[in-house]
Specification:
Structural class: mainly alpha
Distance between the termini: 26 Å
CATH topology: AhpD-like
Length: 118
């Protein structure tokens, strides 16, 4: 069964509202940490999103793949950059990362199709 990654990201965003309302202080702190981590400094935001995607693949986190694939595309990542990112994830995560790299590629294709004008 092929997962619909854009729908997954949309669904998860809605579901996380319950977490935000149930633990507002924790989620406010998490959001602040994410903003600080993603702020462009020595590394730009696109590079940081690609790193997050690689980590999501290596730790086998479908939800991370959905969010960080979408964010990498929005930050201007290219096909070649995603391929290199997935190569590093496979290198660091071995066999299971090969399988999750495939998830990330499907997510990448679906988000690109959704963003395409038409």
């Amino acid at each position: 069964m092929i997962k619909d990654w854009p729908d997954t990201a949309k669904y998860l965003s809605g579901e996380l509202k319950a977490v935000r309302s149930g633990t507002p202080e924790v989620m406010k702190a998490f959001s602040a940490m994410a903003q600080a981590a993603l702020a462009p400094k020595a590394l730009d935001t696109k590079t940081k999103e690609l790193i997050a995607l690689a980590i999501g693949v290596a730790v086998r986190c479908d939800d991370c793949i959905a969010f960080h694939t979408k964010a990498a595309l929005s930050a201007g990542a290219t096909d070649e950059e995603v391929w290199e990112t997935l190569g590093m994830a496979i290198y660091m995560g071995a066999g299971p990362s090969v399988m999750y790299a495939n998830h990330a590629l499907t997510a990448w294709s679906q988000f690109k199709e959704q963003k395409a004008p038409g």
